[in-house]
Request: fold
Amino acid sequence: MAQPTGIYARRAALRLLDAVLRRGETLDIAFAVATKDVRKFEDKALARAIASESLRWLVDLDALIDSATKKPLPGDAKARMVLRLMLAQWLRLDTPPHAVVATGLDLLSGGPRRLAHGVFSTLTKQEAQLPDAPTLPADVAARWGERAPAIAAGLAEPPPLDLTLRDPDQTAHWANQLSADSLMPGHLRLPRGGNVEKLPGFAEGAWWVQDLAASLPARLLGQGEGRHVLDLCAAPGGKSLQLAAQGWQVTSLDISKRRLELLRANLNRTGLKASIVRADALTWEPKHKYDAILLDAPCTATGTARRHPDVLHRIGPRQIEEMAELQSALVERAQGWLKPGGTLLYATCSLEREEGEAQASAISLPPDEIRTDKLPEGIVPTSEGWVRTDPGMLADQGGLDGFFIGRWKADQAPAST
Reply:
């Protein structure tokens, strides 16, 4: 008997869900192996979308499943995993129930197949619905505190496509060319979907993909005017591209060969220049000191939950503690590499205080407070002069990722006598 069209995408989605929830892998890392049997680009994208929506709404999907079973299914039961995928397709991707059944039940056999069919039929007959915003896992909601409801509302939909322009003076031109909105000079926002490489301006390197929040750290270093900046933990390179476009002489350091290859490809595409160094920032020693250092430190990346909803279920106290220790070590090293009067800018795409405010409070350099006029309208600095964004902000304009950003100045050299 021939298998229904689309079964390969559903099998890949099941592999992705299993990789995240059982093995703690990221969607990005699991994707290549999970989709190895899927040939079409569209089917690979569908597999990613099904798994992503299942993770985004996991707590609510499980509540629906539990409402239709006499005894709760184990969290890792295959029937529960498949039902999550089936419900995500019906309730989030508008797949007709008959198509969901045709492709979903083939992922099961025997008793679980009949059970899944019964649960799904019960919920469709009841015209089950999801809430307006996804329910966060209890531990995540507790960590994010009073902002948790607003953040959850900002996670309800995958994010739009943000672009950073090589030349901010061309914002109006490219906004017209791409039918895009703009939230500040040098930024464009388009609806998600479609092939990025086929958009006008890609081939000539007029822009690169970068979330609005992720573009702020490099913006806050201003124009380079030929001065030297170290982009520490630089790959895949969006901030290095920005700094080069802003007139800095850029040294881009990262330990990942694969991610540095992405940076090199984007430098070639945009015609921008940076000196690439592959090294471990914890052992590397610079040959000279820098006018500025941008440390966008490795982190749990919980601020990217809009496009990476796996972080809602993979990240806990252990991962946060490990990242915070690494960040502290990197900050300690970076401070010693600044010229007198040089600028340190620290950033993470994390919503965890341990990776943001706690790190900033421990930095002994004099603060260089960030001003509102350097930020998108609607984003204001904290009372300490730092920046904290989250997915609940600018919601009526498409939102933005969660970031923490702080800026400091090294002491000037003592005057000679």
Notes: DSSP finds 16 helices and ten strands in the chain. The beta strands are 161-165, 187-190, 207-209, 228-232, 249-254, 275-278, 290-296, 338-348, 387-389, 403-409. The first strand starts at residue 161 and ends at 165.
